[in-house]
Amino acid sequence: MSAGRLRRFLFGSLRRQLVLGIAAVHAVLMTVFVADLVLQQRDMLEARQVDEARTLARSLALSSSAWLLSRDLAGLGELLDVKRSSESVEYAMLTDADGRILAHTERQRIGQYLADLPAVPAGADAGVRVLSRSLALVDVLAPVRAGERHVGWVRVGVGPANAAERMSQAMRKGVLYTLVAILLGVLAAIFMANRLTARLASIGETARAVSAGRYDARAPEAGWDETAVVACGFNAMLETLVAERANLHTLIETVPDMVWSKDVYGVYLNCNRMVERMLGRDRAAIIGCRDEDLLPAELASGYREWDRRVIESGQPHTCEEWVVFKDTGQRVLLETVKVPLFGEGGRLIGVLGVARDITERKRIETRLHLLASVFTASREGVLISDAENRILDVNPAFTEVTGYSREDVLGQNPRILSSGRHDPEFYQRMWQALHEQGAWRGEVWNRNKQGHIFPEHLSITTVHDDAGRLTHYVALMTDISQIKAHEQELDRMAHYDPLTGLFNRRLLGERIRQAMEHALHSGVPFALMLMDLDGFKPVNDRYGHDAGDLVLKEVGKRLRRRLRAGDTAARLGGDEFVLVLQGIGTVDECAHVFDRLLHETAEPIPLSVGTVSVSASLGATLFPHDEAEPDDLLRHADQAMYAAKQAGRNCWRIFDPETAA
């Protein structure tokens, strides 16, 4: 048996180790115990031999003194023969004081000398000494005395007699006891090992079942000993692991992303249902396979090269790729991230991949990019603020319109553009519309960075999230200064005389109606006066139309200077002018005003060709004394004006409705 197989045999089983260990301990203990018994038996037999040798030596020393004095060798021999009758006596001898053997149980040694005899002791017994002692032979020497005289020596050797048999019998019993004890120890060890390791074995079987995929396996928990505690702890650990595995499985299966893992050889270790959809196979058919087994060769080779780069670099890699889901045939854009997987000790064990469908995100990004382009390139100023109306962003057109750069206004409130031309009620109506309708549109007057007030068309829209909460305001603004100027020009062309800047006939009619309504409601009268220049045609004919136009402009200026608040001046055409004078209702009041007008009109007018003078004929009617329609009022004033011309010109007349009737 090789060393490896022996090692596996000895240490491959906890039960075997326990049995062999207990048996070895029993064997060692019983061997020590039997050896101690044998040694005690030997020491006891040896002590008995020493006592026997001492007793025999003393007896011979006492009984042989007379024989030694008489040198009776025959008596000494008989004495030794009597003492040698014991089976344990190996030899006995008597010598004289010089050590010459006079009697010996072995006859051939008589006459020999003993060497190295000790000094004679002082006492009778003090000289008895043990020369050597062992279980095989105890050799003692004792002096022989006759009174105080030392006459010789007695030397006795006592053997074990049946001690060897006793020792052999003791050893056989010891071996038997040892074997019986070892057998009983092994049986007890087997019994204890079975009891102690049976539940451990069941825990091991449970662990093997769990590793095989049976996550419902549990170790028996009966009992109160330590193994029961281990089983309970093992089961609790299993419950935790199973719960964590279930949570991880639920997490992986719940996320809408593709999640998978491979080992360093490209073999799939795990995947979720999104991977199953993409590959068109069940998880069981994917686990254990490579990309080459599941995908076209070119695509699989690309994936394998990608995995290799991740493994070699130890760093995450990201890319975008178009794939087709085999279950639906849908083509989607995936953002795939692959990261190295490390185990205990930082050892690389594989690659983890996560792929997310970004088709919709890319579409939104493209749309946002387009919107950003529109935002940047728009000729309309765009302002975006948050729910607290703090400015978040503006486009370049905003800077062109307002003069404020993006950095100037970020975090500011749009009220920094306020011109002060709108009252608080205007803004209250604006905010009310935004809150109730989500939008407001209109014209406002704002102030740019240079302090200039300008008109703009403003459109504000609210933005809400999916929960209906207000998140942003978006304002579009257009500088309408040119439009306003054009409108004013059109309005001027439609309502004002282009030469003098006074109201034309159309606007004059509106102002007459307004004056009539005001007079009817307030009781304040007004005078409608029509003025025709005298001598204008000769100026026009002599100096030309340009000179005539200059005369008309100067007359218009002089009329405008005489206007009060609420009065109106208009040019009907040619050299005819109309005034609507508020608060004049009597002839006397007319006389004061009309005389001054005639005087100012007749003052010389300087021209480049010289100085010219013109006069005027005035005709007027008073409302509500003359309760006629606007056109009739003009006609009545015209009649009065012709009456003034007939009266010699450079004078005024007032229409009397009673006389006219």
Number of strands: 22
Strand order of the largest sheet: 2-1-5-4-3
Low-confidence stretches: none
Query: What fraction, in percent, of the residue positions are helical?
Result: 40-55%
- The radius of gyration is 71 Å
What is the structural class? alpha+beta
- The number of helical elements comes to 21
Sheet with the most strands, sense and barrel status: 5 strands, antiparallel
Distance from N terminus to C terminus (CA atoms, Å) equals: 156 Å
Shape: rod-shaped
**How much of the polypeptide forms β-strand, as a percent range?**
15-25%
Mean pLDDT: 84
For this structure, the quaternary state is single chain
SSE diagram, text form:
Elements: H1 3-11, H2 14-63, H3 65-70, H4 73-83, E1 89-96, E2 101-104, E3 129-133, E4 138-146, E5 149-158, H5 163-211, H6 226-254, E6 258-263, E7 268-271, H7 273-279, H8 283-286, H9 291-294, H10 297-313, E8 317-324, E9 331-342, E10 348-357, H11 359-377, E11 381-386, E12 391-394, H12 396-402, H13 406-409, H14 424-437, E13 439-447, E14 453-464, E15 470-479, H15 481-495, H16 505-522, E16 526-534, H17 536-543, H18 545-561, E17 568-573, E18 576-582, H19 587-602, E19 605-607, E20 610-612, E21 615-623, H20 630-646, E22 652-654, H21 657-660
Parallel strand pairs: 21-22
Antiparallel strand pairs: 1-2, 1-5, 3-4, 4-5, 6-7, 6-10, 8-9, 9-10, 11-12, 11-15, 13-14, 14-15, 16-18, 16-21, 17-18, 19-20
